[in-house]
Amino acid sequence: ELTTVRVQDPRVQNEGSWNSYVDYKIFLHTNSKAFTAKTSCVRRRYREFVWLRRQLQKNAGLVPVPELPGKSTFFVGSTDEFIEKRRQGLQQFLEKVVQNVVLLSDSRLHLFLQSQLSVPEIEACVQGQGPQTVTEAILHYAMSNCGWVQEEESRP
């Protein structure tokens, strides 16, 4: 079984405003039976990765969860360098996570990677309080092709 996960295309959102942030495209391609959709493409920001890591830690018991790149407020160097270093760190984090059988069994991880649901929507879905099951949410996103359509439309 092969799972490729790529963190790419960092984009600054709300640039110039006080609440600007960077989000990253997460591309997943797999033939693993663990995943509902075989390819997916979503955008996530750093604080969503932080949430995911906390959830994985809660549910993984004694299994160590990989570290995230640090949240440096005093970074020496250019913003581009910082964003690239963080992108690499986020990719390494996800690569380690998807190789771990215990972490792979967490449905929050699957919704994080294969749906565009927000963190509260993921929580509701996992607890059975959302309008769809985990599988339905992933399949709905895969069928709608949101990740791909959005990508095409945003190109000049």
Describe the structure in your own words.
The protein is an alpha+beta fold. It has one domain (3-149): Phox-like domain (PX Domain), CATH 3.30.1520.10. Helices cover 47% and strands 18% of the residues. It is built from 7 helices and 3 strands. The chain has helices spanning 46-59, 79-98, 101-104, 107-114, 119-126, 134-144, 146-153; strands spanning 3-13, 21-30, 39-45. Helix 4 (107-114) packs across helix 5 (119-126) and helix 4 runs parallel beside helix 6 (134-144). The longest helix is centred in the middle third of the chain and has 20 residues, at 79-98.
Structure summarized in a few sentences:
With 156 residues, the chain is of the alpha+beta class.
- Helices and strands, in order, run as EEEHHHHHHH
The CATH superfamily is identified as Phox-like domain
User: Could you say what the CATH topology is called?
Assistant: PX Domain
Share of β-strand residues: 15-25%
Tally of separate helices:
7
Structural class: alpha+beta
What is the CATH top level name? Answer: Alpha Beta
Cα-atom radius of gyration: 16 Å
How would you characterize the largest beta sheet?
3 strands, antiparallel
Keywords: Cytoplasm, Endosome, Lipid-binding, Membrane, Protein transport, Transport
GO molecular function: phosphatidylinositol phosphate binding
Family: Belongs to the sorting nexin family.
Protein name: SNX11 protein
